[in-house]
Structures are given as C-alpha cells and as structure tokens.
Amino acid sequence: MSVTLAPKVDAGTRVPAAPRKHRYLVWAVVAAVLIVALTYALPPFRNYQLATVGAYLCVTAGLTVLTGLNGQLSLGHGALMATGAYTVAMVQEKLAGRGQWTLLVAVLAGIAVATVAGGIVGLAAARLRGPYLAGLTLAVAVVVPAIASTFDKTFNSDQGLSVYVDPPPLALGATFPYERWQAWLAWAGALLTVFLLATLVRGRFGRALRAVRDDEAAARIAGVNVARTQVLAFVVSAACAGLGGALFAVLAQSVSPGAFPISLSLFLVMAIVIGGLGSLAGAVWGAVLLVALPALTHSLTELIDVSPAVAQRLEGNLPLALFGITLIVVMLAAPGGIASLRLRRRKA
Amino acid sequence: MTALLEAEQLTVGYGAAPVLHSVDLTVAQGSITAVLGANGAGKTTLLRTLSGLLRPATGRVVLDGQDLRGVKVEQMVRRGVAHVPEGRGVVTELTVDENLRLGGLWRRDRVDAKRALDEVYDLFEPLARRRRFPGHQLSGGERQMLALGRALVGRPRLLLLDEPSLGLAPKVTAQIMGLLRTLRDRTGLTVLLVEQNVRSALSVADTGIVMSLGRVVANADAATLRDDEDMRHAYLGF
C-alpha cells in the first residue's frame, strides 16, 4: 500500500534527472583551455595576478567546503597555507637543481604537512562548536607565524626562506615568459582542486557534510559518524590550503611569516562569504576579489595626490576597508553571496 | 515468540533526577508495541535510551541477545535499529532525495540501498513528487513520511517511532498506522510506537505498555487495554 496526501501531478512537471557524471571533467577541461588562451593574451603582470587568483582559489575552495558545507568556521587557514609554503621552501632547498620533478615532490610534501596539521586541528575542532572553534583556529593563525619567527635557525626568523623554482621547461621555448609558466602551475593546482572537491561534495561525502552542518542529531540517527565527518572535512580543507600555500611559495619564490598574517585568514573567510558560502563558484569569486581589491586600492591611491607617507598608510588599510564595505553591501543586496545572484536570475 | 528487544532495570535521567525508574520491557520479534501514557511519563526518554541517544544510569538494553551498552547512536542503524524522533529529525536544508539517501549512507550494499530507496518512493507517493524539494518546504505529514522513509531505507529490524501522529490529520495518521501493520506483516518489522493518540495506537498494536511517572504500570495485550475501563480512565484518559 502507499500513502497519498494530495492529487497526483502529471509527469510533465517532473524535475529533470541528476546531471551527468562527467560534467565536472568537461568543465575543468574547458576552463583549462580558456586559462591557457588567456595567459597568451595577458601581459606578464596580469599573468602573475591570474596565477595568484589560482593559488587563492585552492584555499577558498577548500575553506568553503569546510565552512559553508560543513559549518565549521576556520580563522586559521592562513596558517595552514604557511605550513604548506614553508615545506615547499625547505624541500626545494634540499633538492634544488635536479629538475622540474622536484617541484612536484615539494608541493606534494607541502600538501602532506598541511594535511597532518589540519588533521590535528580537526581532531580538536570536532569537539568544539561556534565561538570556541573560531577561538581555536584563530590561535592557530597567531601561533604558526610566531613559530616561524622564533626558530631562526630552521625558518630564518622574519626574513623567511627563499624558494628555489626552476625556469620554465625548455620544451616550451627559450623565451617562454616566466609569469605564464607560473599561471599554468597555479591553475593546474586550482582546477584539480575544484574538480576533486566538486566530485567529492556531490556524492555521499557531501550529503554527510551538509547533514552534520544542519542537524547533528538527525545525522547521527541516520548513521553518520559526526566526529569523523568533521575531522575529514578539516583534513580535506587543510590539504587544499596546503596546496594553495605551496603555490604561493612558488609564485613569490620566498616565504616569510609576514606573508601569512592573521588578516590573511580573515580575508579568506570574508572572501568565501562574499562569493557565496558553500559554493565553489563563490570560491572563484572570492579568489578573484582577494587579488582584485588590493590591486584596486593600489590604483586608487595612485590617483589621489598625497604625500608618500599617507599613500603608504592608505595602501595598508584601504584593502581592509574596501573588503569590509564589499562584505556589507553584498550581505545586504545578496545574502547568498555573489554566486547566488546568477542563480536567482536563472530561476526567475 | 522470541524477544527482539529487552530492557532490564533501566534507570535514566537528565542530570541528577531520574526520569525512568527501573523500567523492564520486552518487545517480541515481529510485533507492534505501543508505549502509552500522559505527558511526562517518560515515553520519549525511554525511546531515546533504547536508540542510544541517552545513556542509562543503571540497567541495560539487549537487542537480539547482544548488549547495546557502549554502542554509539550512529552505530545503531548498522545493528538494525531505526529511530524516528519526535519532531521528525528531518535535515531541513537537504532535499527529500538527499534525506532519504542519508538513511542509506552507511550501507555497503549499494544495490540494495538503491532498491530500498525506490521502495520508499513507491510507498510514499508525495515524496516521489517532491524529490528535489528541500525539507523545510514540506508539510508536517510529508515530513513524517520523510522521516519514516529515511528510517526504512536502512532496512531496520526494529523501528522506534516517537509520536508519528503529532500534528497530522486523522486520515494521514490512519494511513501511517496501516502502513506499519503492512510492513510488519510483509517484512517482519518490529515496531515500538510511542503515542499520545491512544485509540489509533491501540488499533494497530499487538501489545501496549502503559507508563506513568517513569514506571511501567501495565503491560498487556492491546485488546485487553482497550477493554480495561479502569486502566483507560486512570492512565489513558478515555
């Protein structure tokens, strides 16, 4: 027997079936082709900015899965990036000059170290909620750069370490611009990250993540191991942050505590909120903003005719102010973030 | 008949004051047992203890000969115990389909999990029509179906139902009660049903347990309870 409440609706109103499995792969390939085309069109500095967006995207994508889909707020992802970045610097120093492959090893090591660090934080985080979790992760953001500053033998204190990166492979031509190579590296990492995350969150893991976020009791009754899901979310997110940090080390060719301040962690959270919490498209918007807003303030301060001292101070503080204003405007106009605007228009 | 579930000397409380006092209980395999009683009698607490959400201070719960002490809530579904809590426990941000799939998430047998999902859609027509609707857009009756459906996707042996009739139209309640009986007959499902709605609960139940102030005061055939006028007046209010 079956239970019926309302008259049947004809089959014509049925919602279409789930999208095909290979859709994300197609997206990734299309995006890769577009990025490569773009790197040939852009001047070197723009390519460097594009590369930075790619590196940020690894982090924001991972963070939006943790915070948006699993409901765990992390104010310490900048520090997890730092662990990835320092690992790359140290591995590259050991292996320098042996060929392009060392970079892959170094980046993988960076991801591994960040993953372990994230696992440790995640184990503690699974027992904490709301403000306590924010406090713990904030402490991580404070402590990690401080560790780098303190141990001057290993981490060379505030000066940090330089990162050896090979020139682009000769196979690409002797005059292949370095910035284009950087953009390719960063976006290879970014597209891989987004592809893997999209696949992961669409399936069973994604359902468990969201069930835990929305209703822990209901999730447990349905057989979901809440603590394990939360730790896993942290581990996945930390691996992404590690990759992002590793790519930053490669782009800047140096790492220092100053590159991973607390404000970086805060910017990351603001970026995913503005972009649209829990949405990978929102993570892309967030990564773009993280590069575009500081660049915009730089142009603005150049327009205004002020003394160099004032200009310097403005440049230090304006990005934060602009980010704050953007956050307020977006929250008022589109509480679901930039990514939700597009959706709403499509539905209307 | 063999006992599927046995509770021995359960004493449970929130903080210092116990809510259940040395409760003994036996649920026969393939039976429908109604747990009846006034507000505050300890019915929900009993169900929450049986499903592992609450830890008893003393006593133990035995399922099919196995002691359930120390078994986590999320492990209970793997042992065949499904709990549909009061207020339904639907994850409102997830769609109907996602909620149902959540119920089968832990299962290794993906093929049968899919089959169970299809069966639930056959069983609950309104859910099939609202597959892609988020839980918060469902009506009370649909939510109840969803919670019940999610429990069934796990193919439980024992279904713990807390007030399935809460806020539902009598007609829908009757349908759900009829469904429980069908499931019992067809699959051998054992049901422990907490209800305020005594008439409708006793109409499907084989046995009834009457609770008052944290103790079991009667444990008898549903028919006997229906006909026992003193009992009805004293504890069941009709």
Helix count from the secondary structure assignment of chain A: 14
Question: Could you state the CATH homologous superfamily of the domain at 1-80 and 199-238 in chain B?
Answer: P-loop containing nucleotide triphosphate hydrolases
- Note the main sheet of chain B: 6 strands, mixed
Strand portion of chain A: under 5%
Number of helices of chain B: 10
Form type of chain B:
globular
Radius of gyration of chain A: 22 Å
Strand order of the largest sheet of chain A: 1-2
CATH topology tier name of the domain at 1-80 and 199-238 in chain B:
Rossmann fold
The helix-and-strand class of chain B reads alpha/beta
CATH class of chain A: Mainly Alpha
Structural class of chain A: mainly alpha
What is the CATH class name of the domain at 1-80 and 199-238 in chain B?
Alpha Beta
Spatial separation of the terminal alpha carbons of chain A: 39 Å
Membrane topology (chain A): Multi-pass membrane protein
Main location (chain A): membrane
Protein name (chain A): Branched-chain amino acid ABC transporter permease
GO molecular function, one term (chain A): branched-chain amino acid transmembrane transporter activity
